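Colleagues,

For the teaching module next term, I've prepared a clean inverse folding example: a structure given as tokens, and then the sequence designed for it. I'd like students to try predicting residues themselves before seeing the answer, so please don't circulate the second half yet.
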């Protein structure tokens, strides 16, 4: 008997450009089926375990609804209500959960937690978010740009904010898709050079001046200034980022066809002004919905491989 190779999705760099080209196409196909109310159940009788150590709205809803639309059943597990929250080793939990389910998604703190889990899992594991990376969100963002503006090759993506999990995931995407990534944040919140691979450096430029960073950008994106787990730094962060709000004046420096994205939830009047996030350049609602469609393509691919339309 041939043993099937298990493929995990722990960070954006886990997939090749060819795989992403397939996933972008497949996301569009599955979104089309959803809009046409076409039943498509390739994951009939399959089970997804969703483990949450960090709370979420979009991650839970997009995975749970998406897996249901593919014909499967999703089980929500909060670590406070499981043995993981009582000290059971990650390795033991992985052995047990992967014998009872077909796929596992984890939203947690350290990347090393999901890497340890993956080493002991018998089924595909998906990173729903860690402190280090947020690959499913960037996958949805790339798909959203693909829908609205086409391929990202040669484009400029500007990130206004701190060096968080989104920024480092965008850097991996820049290398794979061949676009320039402009990172812009105040001193003390910039990229850690040790976390930027040598192969990615030609695709990354750092700025302190938001206007220079946004100049000519085809996509401008940001996030809350205080991410989950950093609430104690909120006042210091608000002070440091007070001149980094994405507003209409700043967007005027971007490419005329630039779009604005935000992974949500957003704080209007802090990292973004209301006239931008609610304005004509904003694609944040498509972006939010596309979490579900892109993740459906991802889950289908991990369990079924490549499928015809």
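(Answer key — instructors only)
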């Amino acid at each position: 008997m041939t043993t099937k190779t298990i493929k995990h999705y722990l960070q954006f760099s886990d997939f090749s450009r060819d795989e992403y080209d397939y996933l972008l196409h497949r996301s569009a196909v599955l979104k089309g089926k959803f809009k046409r109310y076409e039943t498509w159940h390739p994951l009939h009788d399959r089970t997804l375990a969703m483990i949450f150590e960090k709370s979420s709205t979009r991650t839970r809803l997009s995975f749970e609804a998406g897996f249901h639309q593919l014909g499967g059943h999703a089980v929500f597990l909060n670590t406070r209500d499981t043995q993981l929250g009582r000290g059971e080793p990650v390795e033991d939990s992985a052995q047990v959960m992967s014998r009872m389910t077909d796929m596992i998604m984890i939203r947690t703190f350290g990347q090393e937690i999901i890497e340890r889990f993956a080493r002991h899992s018998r089924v595909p594991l998906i990173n729903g978010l860690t402190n280090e990376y947020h690959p499913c969100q960037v996958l949805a963002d790339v798909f959203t740009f693909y829908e609205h503006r086409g391929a990202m090759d040669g484009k400029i993506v500007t990130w206004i904010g701190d060096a968080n999990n989104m920024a480092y995931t965008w850097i991996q995407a820049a290398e794979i898709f061949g676009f320039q990534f402009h990172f812009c944040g105040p001193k003390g919140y910039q990229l850690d050079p040790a976390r930027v691979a040598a192969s990615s450096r030609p695709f990354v430029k750092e700025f302190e001046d938001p206007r220079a960073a946004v100049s000519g950008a085809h996509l401008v994106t940001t996030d809350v200034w205080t991410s989950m787990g950093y609430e104690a730094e909120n006042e210091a962060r608000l002070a440091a980022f007070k001149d980094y709000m994405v507003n209409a004046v700043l967007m005027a420096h971007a490419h005329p066809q630039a779009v604005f994205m935000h992974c949500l939830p957003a704080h209007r009047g802090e990292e973004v002004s209301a006239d931008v996030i609610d304005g004509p350049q904003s694609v944040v609602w498509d972006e939010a919905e596309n979490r579900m469609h892109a993740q459906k393509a991802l889950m289908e691919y991990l369990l079924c491989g490549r499928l015809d339309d």
